[in-house]
């Protein structure tokens, strides 16, 4: 099966990267880029675009993408014109993946195993604690916190903390990490 090539367009760069990282874990989807605006040019053979409807020039972007035959999935409201699908923020990333590439699909790629300390540090980061605060809570140095985060990012295949937190969520009742429901 040839993967659907996707670009993520969102006004917030970190959100675009997090969505791209989350979508890229699904078989049949190949994220080829993310950006905060659309320049009018696009990768050859682009199959779909995920679009933040609150971006400047969102209507113009939708028209251009649809004219080029690209499937447009809107994040949020459909005030930007005719789109192929709309996925609200309350929906899990699986709904977004299904909207980008409709049809039968397998489960997301398995999440790499994080060490207990990596899970603990990302859990505290997800609660909004800064690196120094995490270090104080755990009784370790801030540099050690950053080393654990860097290893976790590498294992998850994400570029930064926001993407790691978006790709994973903490199951409060069970105490383990599961796929995020963005």
Structural class: alpha/beta
Strand content: 15-25%
Query: Helical stretch count?
Result: 7
Which regions are unreliable across 5 or more consecutive residues at pLDDT < 50? 105-111, 170-182
CATH architecture annotation name of the largest domain: 3-Layer(aba) Sandwich
* CA-atom Rg in angstroms: 18 Å
Number of strands: 7
Largest sheet: 5 strands, parallel
What top-tier CATH class of the largest domain fits best? Alpha Beta
CATH fourth-tier homologous superfamily of the largest domain? Response regulator
CATH topology of the largest domain: Rossmann fold
Distance between the first and last residues' Cα: 26 Å
H/E series: EHEEHEEHHHHHEE
Strand sequence of the main sheet, in spatial order? Answer: 2-1-3-4-5
Residue-averaged pLDDT: 78
Shape: elongated
Percent of residues in helices: 25-40%
Count of the domains: 2
């Amino acid at each position: 099966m040839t993967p659907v090539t996707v670009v993520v367009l969102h006004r917030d760069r970190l959100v675009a990267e997090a969505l791209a990282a989350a979508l890229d874990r699904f078989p049949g989807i190949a994220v080829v880029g993310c950006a905060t605006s659309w320049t009018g040019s696009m990768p050859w053979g682009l199959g779909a675009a995920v679009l933040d409807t609150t971006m400047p020039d969102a209507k113009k972007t939708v028209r251009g993408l649809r004219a080029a035959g690209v499937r447009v999935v809107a994040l949020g409201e459909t005030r930007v014109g005719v789109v192929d699908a709309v996925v609200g923020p309350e929906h899990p990333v699986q709904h977004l993946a299904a909207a980008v590439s409709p049809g039968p699909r397998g489960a997301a790629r398995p999440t790499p195993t994080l060490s207990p300390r990596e899970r603990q540090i990302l859990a505290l980061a997800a609660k909004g604690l800064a690196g120094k605060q995490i270090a104080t809570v755990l009784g370790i140095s801030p540099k050690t916190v950053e080393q654990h985060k860097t290893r976790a990012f590498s294992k998850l295949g994400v570029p930064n903390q926001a993407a790691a937190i978006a790709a994973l969520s903490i199951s409060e009742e069970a105490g383990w990490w599961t796929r995020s429901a963005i």
